């Protein structure tokens, strides 16, 4: 429908060289022409931070808002005009620290929007303080002996708040990221994608392990068994609600991924915690959970009518129920 | 001032107060008396006061709920301050009111609410002699509970006490019962026995009056200009004004609010107008409310968010963003007592500085203040019109007196409403910050092809809207945003006097809901041929033209405010005139006598 170059803006990009944001910007530019929505009906909304400069670098409508409030601004845009395709661009500090209240309510309401969380586990634009997703013990400018507050498990939090599409990808997986972005754009409801994004200045290589070590990473595919490892030699099995890693040759009944199963999605999201406690489960990438649930925006508009006789209706409302005339 | 005549001579105006426990149904009685009085042709102004707690402990001072009505055959501009008739259902109600107001008048007392226990709860000493205490009044002691019991309505004897009192008061003023009977029949349809009990007791109260030797008080109808009338409360008027503006501008209206006293009613009313295309959204907090409204404005609707003082503080960053983006947005602040949580159900005008100066950076923006419940319609409409036509956020500064007060309103026909012209983008080579001859930028929004753009809170380059850190550009943009206020000032009505003489000795200056009491007091001052005048400011920022020449026509200017003195600083700052301040910050409005005393004092030294 559109050529890619009509979507990239002519503005000078001010991210640091080699920042993970470049890859994400590129993948978004690639998929936008494929989602079947007119250019003028696409809106990017952001808060504050490195990631939130994103809307300037793309040639659609964009609103660079205030810190943490992109989900609320997006809510207003979507409720004012439900035809628009709204994309929230946010970072880990923006959405899970200062904007924590808005993101959980967005998930709960399930408004048809896409949320792209650029998670680099650090504050970049303010130059290197720890964020609510920084791993425990990280030494930063504001934690000189290491952080003492445990990080949020973002996907668990999203599931707990009622999100209907929860996925994870990474700047260094361009093809995977494009796939997830496309699926998110098609989902009717709030689509939440956590994108691991490398900040090569303040938290370099935070996610390298998931690129370099295959036994730390697992890719989820709907209706497919959970298999990982450099030779695909490991599988994951469920013993009741306890996941366990098994070698593939010995395993009989592997865990078959089901995107619609919220309980299992919860277990997958918690591999995160166990990874740090036991350092044994691989980090899941892909769609953990996806289900069609009623959206706030469609229910909201069910009773709104903005049609004929609007002047007549206004007249009746001004008049009210108890009126009298004086001649 | 008002005098209560004991003869049958018609009176010009009467102030009556119904007071009882918050569960006694005083609000219902008050609103019924108001409606009946309006329908038979009196001018009416009311105010309600209730405790912040939903069901405060019964019988105590903290749980008293009151409904006050000033009605008459002359223009009524405020809810009254001295009561001619008190209807008190228990001892606490009497104590609460009695300690504030003393006046020769009629007290109707429900004796069953004055048991020893009741007197104790009200904090009266054992030695207290009620009859001696109120000997200066005409007292009607009625054992209401005994009377309701006598009507054989069984279990409803307690909850219908208010209807007995209402019936008696209707008789006292020789009012018809028919409007209240209709109301009861309509609203209690589903509970026929309760309906019957209410109707019986209402009639019993009326008949009790008839049989007693009570003298009837007469109030003639007022003379109104021809037109269609209704009663209206301030919050409701704001909702109607903004809804009408969105229809006139042919754009959507999106209201986002978070529950807060005394602004919640705005959210309640907006949620009723879905069939007008009005969208109302209960946000998760004050910040989400303002930012979702900004989102709606960015998407081509009129975003509106309402709140009270503490919520306003939370919204200020968002208001700054709307100012920077130059989007239409109306922010309603229904003021209450501050600072912090302050006095949530009491009147105060202390958010003026917050409205005018409350944001970071150079952010001049319009602030409008309605002066009465019905005037809130006009001010809300004008706030929306200025906001849309000048692409700027506008603050509508109301207060609890306007929100919870009601008065008679001659509502307009659609043909009487102003047109509103949104400055929609209409060119192919759209630049977001290109301006028209009034320094207003064009409004291009999502869905409009060829006007794609990205804007934000960062300083932007003139015309293109690209992010810019250029020093000269910043100064230019600051001045361009400021100039918009001059163009807004050009369209405001010239400031004149509301009543009194010009030139004269003293000019009384006011803003917001103090309008009514000062207008009412002016009647007395004019009658006594004092060389004074009253001027009321509806547009607080930018201030209208004409103020300077007005000030020159008086020896002294005095500003009346329910705060620690705020407008006075703005006036001194803008005009370098030595205005004096008369302020009160007690959670209560001015009284006529306070104003008169102060004006007399000034007259003797001027």
Automatic annotation (TrEMBL), chain A:
InterPro entries: 2-oxoacid:Fd_oxidoreductase, THDP-binding, TPP_enzyme_TPP-bd. The keyword Oxidoreductase applies. GO terms for biological process: cellular respiration; small molecule metabolic process. Residues 48-195 form the Thiamine pyrophosphate enzyme TPP-binding domain. The keyword Oxidoreductase applies. CDD domains: TPP_OGFOR. SUPFAM superfamilies: Thiamin diphosphate-binding fold (THDP-binding). Keywords: Oxidoreductase. One of its GO terms (molecular function) is oxidoreductase activity, acting on the aldehyde or oxo group of donors, iron-sulfur protein as acceptor. Coiled coil: none annotated. This is 2-oxoglutarate ferredoxin oxidoreductase subunit beta. It comes from Candidatus Uzinura diaspidicola str. ASNER.
Automatic annotation (TrEMBL), chain B:
GO terms for biological process: response to oxidative stress. Residues 23-206 form the Pyruvate/ketoisovalerate oxidoreductase catalytic domain. Residues 252-462 form the Pyruvate flavodoxin/ferredoxin oxidoreductase pyrimidine binding domain. Gene3D superfamilies: 3.40.50.920, 3.40.50.970, Pyruvate-ferredoxin oxidoreductase, PFOR, domain III (3.40.920.10). Keywords: Oxidoreductase. SUPFAM superfamilies: Pyruvate-ferredoxin oxidoreductase, PFOR, domain III (SSF53323), Thiamin diphosphate-binding fold (THDP-binding) (SSF52518), TK C-terminal domain-like (SSF52922). InterPro entries: 2-oxoacid/accept_OxRdtase_asu, Pyruvate:ferred/Flavod_OxRd, Pyrv/ketoisovalerate_OxRed_cat, Pyrv_Fd/Flavodoxin_OxRdtase_N, Pyrv_flavodox_OxRed_cen, THDP-binding, Transketo_C/PFOR_II. GO terms for molecular function: oxidoreductase activity, acting on the aldehyde or oxo group of donors. This is Putative 2-oxoglutarate ferredoxin oxidoreductase subunit alpha. It comes from Candidatus Uzinura diaspidicola str. ASNER.
């Amino acid at each position: 429908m559109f050529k890619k170059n009509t979507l990239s803006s002519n503005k000078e990009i001010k991210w640091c060289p080699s920042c993970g944001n470049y890859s994400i910007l590129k993948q978004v530019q690639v998929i936008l022409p494929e989602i079947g929505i007119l250019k003028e009906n696409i809106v990017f909304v952001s808060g504050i931070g490195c990631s939130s400069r994103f809307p300037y670098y793309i040639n659609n409508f964009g609103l660079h808002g205030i810190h943490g409030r992109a989900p609320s601004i997006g809510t207003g845009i979507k409720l004012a005009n439900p035809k628009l395709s709204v994309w929230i661009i946010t970072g880990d500090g923006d959405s899970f620290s200062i904007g924590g209240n808005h993101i959980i309510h967005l998930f709960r309401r399930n408004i048809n929007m896409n949320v792209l969380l650029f998670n680099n586990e650090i504050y970049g634009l303010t130059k290197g303080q720890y964020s609510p997703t920084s791993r425990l013990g990280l030494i930063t400018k504001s934690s000189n002996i290491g952080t003492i507050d445990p990080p949020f498990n973002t996907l668990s939090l999203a599931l707990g708040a009622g999100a209907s599409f929860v996925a994870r990808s990474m700047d260094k997986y361009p093809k995977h990221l494009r796939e997830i972005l496309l699926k998110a754009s098609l989902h009717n409801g709030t689509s939440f994608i956590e994108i691991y994004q490398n900040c090569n200045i303040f938290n370099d290589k935070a996610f390298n392990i998931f690129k370099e070590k295959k036994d730390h990473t697992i890719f989820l595919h709907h209706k497919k068994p959970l298999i990982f490892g450099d030779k695909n030699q490991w599988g994951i099995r469920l013993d009741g609600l306890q996941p366990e890693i098994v070698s593939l040759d010995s395993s009989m009944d592997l865990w078959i991924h089901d995107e619609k199963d919220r309980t299992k999605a919860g277990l997958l999201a918690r591999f995160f915690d166990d990874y740090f406690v036991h350092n044994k489960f691989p980090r899941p990438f892909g769609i953990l959970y996806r289900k069609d649930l009623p959206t706030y925006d469609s229910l909201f508009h069910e009773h709104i009518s903005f049609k004929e006789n609007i002047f007549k209706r206004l007249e009746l409302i001004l008049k009210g129920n108890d009126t009298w005339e004086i001649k | 001032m008002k005098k209560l005549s004991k003869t049958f001579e018609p009176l010009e105006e009467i102030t009556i107060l119904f007071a009882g426990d918050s569960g006694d149904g005083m609000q219902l009685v008050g609103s019924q008396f108001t409606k009946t009085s309006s329908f038979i042709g009196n001018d009416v102004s009311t105010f309600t006061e209730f405790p912040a707690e939903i069901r405060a402990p019964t019988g105590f001072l903290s749980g008293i709920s009151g409904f006050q009505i000033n009605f008459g055959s002359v223009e009524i501009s405020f809810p009254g301050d001295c009561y001619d008739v008190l209807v008190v259902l228990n001892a606490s109600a009497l104590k609460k009111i009695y300690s504030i107001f003393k006046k020769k008048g009629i007290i109707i007392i429900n004796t069953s609410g004055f048991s020893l226990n009741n007197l104790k709860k009200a904090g009266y000493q054992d030695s207290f002699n009620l009859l001696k205490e109120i000997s200066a009044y005409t007292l009607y002691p009625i054992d209401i509970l005994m009377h309701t019991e006598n009507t054989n309505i069984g279990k409803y004897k307690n909850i219908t006490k208010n209807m007995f009192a209402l019936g008696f008061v209707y008789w006292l003023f020789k009012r018809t019962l028919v409007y209240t009977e209709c109301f009861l029949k309509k609203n209690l349809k589903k509970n026929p026995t309760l309906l019957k009990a209410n109707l019986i007791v209402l009639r019993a109260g009326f008949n009790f009056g008839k049989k007693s030797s009570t003298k009837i008080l007469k109030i003639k109808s007022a003379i109104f200009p021809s037109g269609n009338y209704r009663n209206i409360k301030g919050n409701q008027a704001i909702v109607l004004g903004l809804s009408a503006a969105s229809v006139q501008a042919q754009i959507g209206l999106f209201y986002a609010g978070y529950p807060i006293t005394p602004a919640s009613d705005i959210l309640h009313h907006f949620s009723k107008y879905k069939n007008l295309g009005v969208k109302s959204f209960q946000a998760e907090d004050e910040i989400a409310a303002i930012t979702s409204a900004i989102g709606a404005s960015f998407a081509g609707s009129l975003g509106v968010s309402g709140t009270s003082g503490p919520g306003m503080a939370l919204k200020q960053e968002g208001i700054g963003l709307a100012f920077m983006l130059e989007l239409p947005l109306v922010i309603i602040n229904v003021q209450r007592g501050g600072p912090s949580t302050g006095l949530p159900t009491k009147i105060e005008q202390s958010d003026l500085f917050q409205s005018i100066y409350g944001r970071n950076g150079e952010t001049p923006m319009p602030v409008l203040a309605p002066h009465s419940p019905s005037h809130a319609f006009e001010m809300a409409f004008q706030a929306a019109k200025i906001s849309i036509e000048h692409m700027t956020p506008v603050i509508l500064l109301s207060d609890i007196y306007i929100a919870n007060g009601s008065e008679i309103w001659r509502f307009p026909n659609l043909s009487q409403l102003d047109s509103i012209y949104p400055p929609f983008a209409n060119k192919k080579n759209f630049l977001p910050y290109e301006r028209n001859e009034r320094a207003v930028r064009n409004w291009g929004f999502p869905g409009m092809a060829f006007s794609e753009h990205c804007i934000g809170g960062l300083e932007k380059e003139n015309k293109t809207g690209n992010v810019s850190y250029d020093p000269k550009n910043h100064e230019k943009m600051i001045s361009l945003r400021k100039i918009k206020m001059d163009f807004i000032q050009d369209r405001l009505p010239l400031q004149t006097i509301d009543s009194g003489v010009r030139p004269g000795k003293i000019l009384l200056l006011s803003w917001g809901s103090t309008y009514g009491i000062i207008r009412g007091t002016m009647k007395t001052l004019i009658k006594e041929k004092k060389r004074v005048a009253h001027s009321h400011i509806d547009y607080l920022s930018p201030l209208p033209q004409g103020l300077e020449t007005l000030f020159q026509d008086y020896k002294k200017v005095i500003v009346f405010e329910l705060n620690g003195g705020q407008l006075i600083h703005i006036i001194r700052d803008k005009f370098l005139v030595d205005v004096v301040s008369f302020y009160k910050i007690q959670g209560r409005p001015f009284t006529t006598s306070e104003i008169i005393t102060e004006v007399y004092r000034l007259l003797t030294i001027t």
